[in-house]
Amino acid sequence: MHPKLNRKLNSNKDNIVRIYLVYFVIVTLYLLLLIGNYPYLNFHLVVFSLSFYYIGYVAINELVNVGLISIKFIFNVFGFLYTNYHIIELVVDKTIINEYYYYGMELSYLAMFSFNTAYSLTKCSTLEHHIRRKLDVGKFNYGLLVILILSVAAFYYVVVQGIGILNYFLVSRAERSLMRADYSFLTFYSITLPMISTLSLFIYMQYRKKLNLLLFFMAFLLTILNSVLTASRADMFSAVLPVIVILNYNKILSNKITIIIGAAGFVLFGVWKSLYNSEIETQYGEFSTWYEICKNVLSHPQSYSLAYYPGKSYLDTLLNLVVPVTGIEPLSRWYLRTFEPLVYQAGGGRGFSSVLEAFLNFNVFGVISIYVLYGIIAKKIFPKSEMTMIINLLAIVSINMLFRSESYAFWKNMLWLRIYPILLLYYFASRKIVFKSRSNTYECS
């Protein structure tokens, strides 16, 4: 091993030990105060407490060795929030926790452990063929410009001409969703705009082309405007997170500053929807909704078996990989129709969970196998070229959806509105370079 690389690895190990020791002390004191005052102690809360140490170690190790550009780091941060935040709320309020909440919590831990184990054991293998591709930045930018023009046209048609900007503020969020549903696929701009801002900023940081900076600001501001009009935290998140990650990756933001920005963003995430009301209050229902879904579905397992056979939701997802528009009812809509018909009729949404989907299809084995697969996929797209870096950035924006949607919605939005268009654009805007072929397998984190 090269001496400089060896020194860097040793330095990283020292940093991990120091950071984790501080984290361990703080978490231990916090848990003693939190659990010590809870009158309904049980084994599940021991598992809950241990998760702080496990997830914390995985996240710190990945942050020090790789940085924020890691899907594994982002996955564990959101896994922690979606799994632990609501349980913390219930313990603080000294509420008896429903047994199905504990079941859902432990299924989520199993999914995270399976993902992390598969990710760690998978090697970054790359067979470098005798042909590689070099990006023509000019062509790529013109392609982004075309997508931006189409997105702006769709945004204008739906928001300004179709619904009217004032109507967005005069009706409830559920009514807004019903209005947008009338325009179906034309609302693709809510996904393509943050994608354009992400790629434009990434390309600008690599090549310093002014057009990329212009495309970035236009797409970014339109995404922010759309998130304000729809009171959508997801849209705001999809615009802001990639900017933070790219700036951190290019050493413009240090890890320390990035963590401070992340903490401030978490607070904003909580008060975002209340900014539309006269009183500001934190609302983190995002992290508790899936527990209600777990309780409803797991307490009535026959409801799923009557509507679906094992593996059907994944077959639907595979079909959607090649057919963009189908008449398939995703699990998130099935859930509302079955358990919350009033919300269903009003056009609202609750999301779902890929953890719960895996369990419903193949029980505990499904959770393990599906998340092992996700861990392998995440490692295989570790940034080792320009194209894999781009895919990695797009995946980071979507990774939180694994905890709040089923595979059908996750892969449909990820592939048809992000990955497929960019792959086509990349191959259109790049040229082949012939060089000597070689195979290489290496550790990438």
List the helices and strands and how they pair.
Blueprint: H1 3-36, H2 43-65, H3 71-92, H4 99-121, E1 124-128, E2 131-135, H5 137-163, H6 165-170, H7 173-181, H8 189-207, H9 210-230, H10 233-249, H11 255-271, H12 289-298, H13 301-307, H14 312-322, H15 331-339, H16 341-346, H17 354-380, H18 386-398, H19 407-428, E3 430-434, E4 438-442
Antiparallel strand pairs: 1-4, 2-3
Helix pairs in contact: 1-2, 2-3, 2-4, 3-4, 4-12, 4-17, 5-8, 5-9, 8-9, 8-10, 9-10, 10-11, 10-18, 14-19, 18-19
Kindly describe this structure.
The protein has 445 residues and is mainly alpha-helical. The protein is built from 19 helices and four strands. Strands 1-4 form a two-stranded antiparallel sheet. Helix 2 (43-65) packs parallel to helix 4 and helix 8 (189-207) packs antiparallel against helix 9.
